[in-house]
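Issue: ligand-bound run for protoporphyrin IX containing FE - logging full I/O for the record.

Environment: standard queue, default settings, no custom constraints.

Inputs:
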Amino acid sequence: MPVAEDLTAPTRERTLNPLLDGLGRSARAHEHRLLSAARPALPYLNWLGMLARPIMKVPGLGWITSDPLTARAVLNDPDHFTLLSEGGVGHLWAQILGDWVYDLFDGPGHYDLRTRSRELFTERTSATFVEHAWGGRLDSARTAFEAGEPIDLADLSRILVGQMVVTLLGLPVEASRGDAAYREIFETGEELASIALGTTADTVLPPEKIATARAIVERLTGHIDAVFATASGDTIIGRCRDLGLSITETKGLSTLLMVAGTETAASAMARMAALLYDSGEQHRLIENPKLRENAVREALRVTSPAPLIGRSVLADLEIGGRTLRAGERIMVLTWTANNLAGEYRVDRPYIPQNRQLWFGAGRHLCLGGPLARAELDAVLGMLVGDGRPFRIVSRRYGRKVLIPAYASLVVQKA
Ligand code: HEM
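Outputs:
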């Protein structure tokens, strides 16, 4: 559970971490504390990661890299790296969902699935999903916010993301329960993710965790059998069917969306607001609203909500002058790789070498990237769309959470 504390005062502490120096120091310090609260080892790993250029071996942990080119070389090489053997996230999923995962998540079936789901989230369909899922709720939040009411953006993000899941999966919910129903959906996704991704050290799950995870998956995707044939094209189920995916593929993909696209997106929304305020960059954005797309890209880069990506080595290879052996593990430190490029700046141009490493790379590149961007753009519209700045009234970091995130971030028009 998150612990309440007043962290709004500008920080004065000195730090040995060069990632925290320079302009935007308050923004960096808050991000640093947020990472520590989530997983105390994370800032140390990120700090160690600065030495991992191009690649370094850490006893007990395996290989780490924070070099964008090496990172992409790893993520683009399915002949030598996999996420399916022990140490990879696919191995966890196979225990929960069944052996078909080996084909669909990383085997030939994965290529086929990705080819056919390429059009699932385009810029256009994503904007439509956001409008469809959030329209009314976001409008009412914006009206209240612009009228001067404080809003807990971390809570609102969880509600919005829950609402997105309900829309995408066509999940039956009791509309009369309002926000509570959507918070609950978010928490369900959070629970599943904590089981399915919650360990970087050992990927063999105990039977009781497998049973809990299976019950959650059934709750989230059990309805798909009945609605598959008739689901509207507005839902992911209908779109998957129209794109030629089978029921099994649709269920697998829906589960993945739930896990991959909930906490990450909610984390980025509130952290983007904090960065804009802490760095003072919201004023530059208000002066030049054309920088909105940049502001979103920068928020994704600096927050990198999935701070590391794990893989297992399938076959011996040389990379960055080192020899990696089959069976070893490697972690791509995306947060470090992305943050070494500098602090949050709304006018920072696209960084070709990093590309969009916050979404991974290669065959597993985030499927929901356009949706995440559309979601962040909509939240940005709520925050500064009226041309007036906002302030942070209070904040709490989420403690012991898988994806670093604010437990609470209360914002108000300045
Ligand atoms: C800020 C938000 C997000 C971030 C930072 C993010 C990050 C990532 C990363 C790093 C991966 C690659 C994992 C790996 O290679 O092991 C990934 C995969 C994936 N993401 Fe996202 N994601 C975000 C939002 C979303 C959303 C909104 C959705 C959809 C609703 C989504 C769906 C997926 C799926 C389905 C995959 C698996 C793709 C595959 O294995 O082929 N993500 N995401």
